[in-house]
Description:
Largest interface: A-B, 83 and 84 residues
CATH class of the largest domain in chain A: Alpha Beta
Largest sheet of chain A: 6 strands, mixed
Order of helices and strands of chain A: EHEHEHEHEEEEHEHEEHEHEHEHHHEEEH
Oligomer: homodimer
CATH superfamily of the largest domain in chain A: MoaB/Mog-like domain
Strand order of the largest sheet of chain A: 2-1-3-8-7-6
Number of helices of chain A: 13
Strand content of chain A: 15-25%
Number of strands of chain A: 17
Shape of chain A: elongated
Number of domains of chain A: 3
CATH architecture of the largest domain in chain A: 3-Layer(aba) Sandwich
Amino acid sequence: MTLPPRLLGSAEVIAVGSEMLGAARIDTNSLFLGERLASLGIDLRAKTVVGDRRADLATFFRQALDRVDLVILTGGLGPTDDDLTRDVVADVLGLEMREDPEIVESIRQRFARRGLRMPEINRRQAMVPTGATVLDNPNGSAPGLLLTHRDRVVLLLPGPPREMKPMFELIAASALEPRARKERFTRTVLFVVGRSESHVEEAIQPIYAPLAQTVPPIETTILAAPGQIEVHLTALSADPAAAAAALASARDRMVAALGDDVFTTEGRPLEQVVGDLLARNGSTIAAAESCTGGLLLSRLTDIPGSSAYVLGGVVAYSNDLKTAFADVPVELIHQHGAVSEPVATAMAQGIRKRTGATYGVGITGIAGPGGGTPTKPVGTVALAVEGPATSAVRTAQFTGGRAQIKHYASQIGLDMVRRMIGRDAVVRRD
Amino acid sequence: MTLPPRLLGSAEVIAVGSEMLGAARIDTNSLFLGERLASLGIDLRAKTVVGDRRADLATFFRQALDRVDLVILTGGLGPTDDDLTRDVVADVLGLEMREDPEIVESIRQRFARRGLRMPEINRRQAMVPTGATVLDNPNGSAPGLLLTHRDRVVLLLPGPPREMKPMFELIAASALEPRARKERFTRTVLFVVGRSESHVEEAIQPIYAPLAQTVPPIETTILAAPGQIEVHLTALSADPAAAAAALASARDRMVAALGDDVFTTEGRPLEQVVGDLLARNGSTIAAAESCTGGLLLSRLTDIPGSSAYVLGGVVAYSNDLKTAFADVPVELIHQHGAVSEPVATAMAQGIRKRTGATYGVGITGIAGPGGGTPTKPVGTVALAVEGPATSAVRTAQFTGGRAQIKHYASQIGLDMVRRMIGRDAVVRRD
């Protein structure tokens, strides 16, 4: 089929199906399509989930057609009464539907291969609007459809991801790619720990504000994620090398402004940054965790290859185990309390000595909701790191629920290790 | 504030933020809102993610206002230039904005509590459209806003889930609930471990098929979640007692068909089910983890009150630490390999003895991507539980990436504890 000569600059995705409006099911197709469209230089402007209701679907589809060059609808191509997508699209575009005997035959054969006869309702899936190109579905019974309407392109894809994705890839290569703009999105990202969103904003605003006016213009987005702030930089350009160079220059200036609060410019999670540093230096790590309950070690061991540098550690929830597993002197706990810098330090020292690790981490705190006191409220966490050259200890005050406090504490613990390894490298270079 | 007298029958959710149009970030707020709106009998008709683009947001908002009684916008209330939601809503509704000195003061104090001064840009968050009710945000700096427009209700909520959810709950109770329809969705759920989705389907299909025709009709959805299968039952009825009774009867028949593979009918995660069993029996638990790297203990300690029954444990990644921390005999590792049932059993016995816990768990396996062999491929995990009356050990073969394998292994480990506590209770009753 021939697409209109107009280039495809913008798209909307409409996922059809009431089941995705409950709490139980996520529309993962749109995540995949967002990524793939960006790589084609097609700007995904919005994505909508709409239930199996004829009027709603018609409205959203008609409005998307007004706004963007490419409208992708996923789902609602099944054989049952609440599969409305084909009908509604044909209605809105004013097209007749006819049964395609080839599709009927192919669905019939699909059932026959499993020793079944085709239920009559599956004939619905063979209905094709005039002028549509039928897209084969090797992984299911619902064929896809490609239509044009004036200078717009409309793509109907089946809902199940394993049917939708290969079909999209085929049509992307054969039909969308040749009509995509020469401009493509290039992206880069900085992850920051140890500053609030507004303090990151304040530090880099003078850098990013003028970038919106450069050629290529660079768009900056600042996001608060759990335990880290993310700066996303995006350039749209027909010259990917120039875009990459502009992004690299912007990124480097932001890194200079933010200093070593930036822990990665490659999108690596903090546990991987720490792991890569340990691996590069041939160092090892062990941890004695109380309030984080094993989360710091679990995050470190999420990284492939972590067995090379994670020796292990202990989860010492009770005071007895802090003594038995990490050699924390009983008197120290009596004197300062289990949540204190001396106890965190003793835990870090104890686990480092027991395991022979290069770096030992100790974390003890109050994750709540119980256990807080006026002087040590819920969210109080003492963290210590013992290394070959230096020691670090601090007390942090986190807010949020139990899971957040655990996550923040593991994040700060990992960050203390990262900063210490950085300082150790400097010491060694000197 | 007074809401219009009209009942709230329908809603749309608009999530604002370009970052959610990429592949990196999922809009989880809409899942929560879908569930909560259903419980209020408010039909969520569509949900949209729209980027930080003034014209697009204005169009979607205006159209939603045409279609439904309640429009909820999440996100875009931050202090930066691309936080547009307040402005766009005021524009579309034709309202003036003014700075609210009380909000400025409360944001200032929020920063002061952390020893910081308020950046000037945060003043944006104090801008309030005429007639709007300001909703306090105890968990962040962006207040929410509640507006009415003719007979419509508009709710602006912050994007971070831990700020959005408590704010929604307050406004749901005080403002939405009194205007909701009499028909409510009533739901119940069964979580199943140890069976595949199709085996759950096969067991309960004869029960759920006729339920679609009863009064009230009951809708059944079977979902595969990581490490568990979920059966969701939903009834819409103006008689909540009748709906609850019908759901309870359906649920009980399904539990009878699925036996003790059902671990909860209250939506509790498995780590909480195990924790509640331990707490009820006055029992304690400890674990020696290798491939799960602390995840089992971390999950157990996600539950408030877990310090009453989680003693702690060890993460023994290296063979040396399996011996040093959990008394696994060196010869046992040489004879059977680190990933073997005898080693898992020795880890469970060792940690149980060292800590004095009622139940000891041992997990050793190959999380990959490296480390697999022809006889013990990646995903091979040996799990053991030692209890006061019995022992259990098994070898499981999991598929997927490293994080999945860790999660599945922790899930099966927890489930083995759950089943053992169940058997122990029977033994004690006899």
